[in-house]
Amino acid sequence: MMSTMKRSLSLVAVAFWILDPVDAAKMIRFASPLQSLTIPDKEMKEEIGTKRSRFLPRFRAGLQAEVEARREISAKRTAELQEAATTGSDWAERTADSEMARRQKEDELVEQAYDRAVSDFDKKTKKPKAPKPQNAYQFVGVVNRKGDKPITWYARPKPADSKWSVRLLHVNQDAIIKDLFNRGKVDIFAKYKITGKVDEETKAPIVTSNYEVRERSWKNLWNFSPKHFFTDPSGMYWRERRLEPGLYTDGVGVYESSYRYGDGRNGMHRVSGFQQFLNSKNIKPDQKEKILSRLRDDAPDVVLEL
User: Fold this and answer.
1) Using an 8 Å Cβ cutoff, are 127 and 48 in contact?
2) In the 3-class helix/strand/coil scheme, how is 218-242 assigned residue by residue?
3) What SS3 state is found at 168?
4) Which residues, 6+ apart, have CB-to-CB distance to 143 below 8 Å?
5) How many CB atoms lie within 10 A of CB 61?
6) pLDDT digits (tens, 9 = 90+) for 210-238
7) CA nearest 249: which of 226, 234, 268, 229?
8) What is the pLDDT of residues 234-280, one digit of tens each?
9) 33 touches 176 (CB < 8 A)
10) CA-to-CA distance for 264 and 235, rounded, in angstroms?
11) Is residue 244 within 8 Å of residue 257, measured between CB atoms?
């Protein structure tokens, strides 16, 4: 007996650009499993300001000093060329030989002028002293859409150097569990149960699932099961355990199991519809009743999750 289920998988958002494979791999960005919204204190926001508001005046002062330094160097260079042109006929060759060293020296002078201007600006405009926060506690709200309460609030004494009082934290549990499973820290165990109800559209039995996450550790022998080791072998890790030969049904169709030994994968071939199978005279009435009873009450033998 086979029961099919369609389940949606939560995928980590990836931003991907069509570039060279090496460049594309470097530009992949994964959404963080912890997404937060921090509300800063009102007095902190008014007094200190943003990084952008401090950066732009500082950058402008450095650019002005750089422009003035280049203007002075250009004027001095013009005077030197005029003087060299009147001293001899080989002034062009001598100027070309010293061009590389001259440009390097000019770049160093411009950088020094920029650094001095930025340093003077920092000395004149010191950061204002942060005011003392009025709130004695910090409140953190953890968003959990799957729980009974959409937001659970926690409070703690506010540190002296902290600049916020309220923070909302959204934990993507699916992304965290997927990461722990990929790194071999946890195992996922599933139990399936037939509810006895039938889907009105597909006429297939409705199957419910219950998942359990178990941590791998020495206390539980890393979830090792001797029963599964001896009764459920699959050979190589990439090969699927072969299903028992026979007929399977999901309440809609009847399928025959198959196995591809080349790549170690199971398969199902549809042989007939379920109602056609029940109407067959080759099936005894007691066998038909047993099949219908299993569809109503028993746990599924095979579950295919898509």
Assistant:
1) yes
2) HHHHHHCCHHHHHHCCCCCCCCCCC
3) strand
4) 150, 151, 168, 169, 170, 171
5) 19
6) 889 999 988 888 888 777 777 665 555 56
7) 268
8) 555 567 778 888 889 888 899 999 888 888 888 889 999 998 888 88
9) yes
10) 9
11) yes
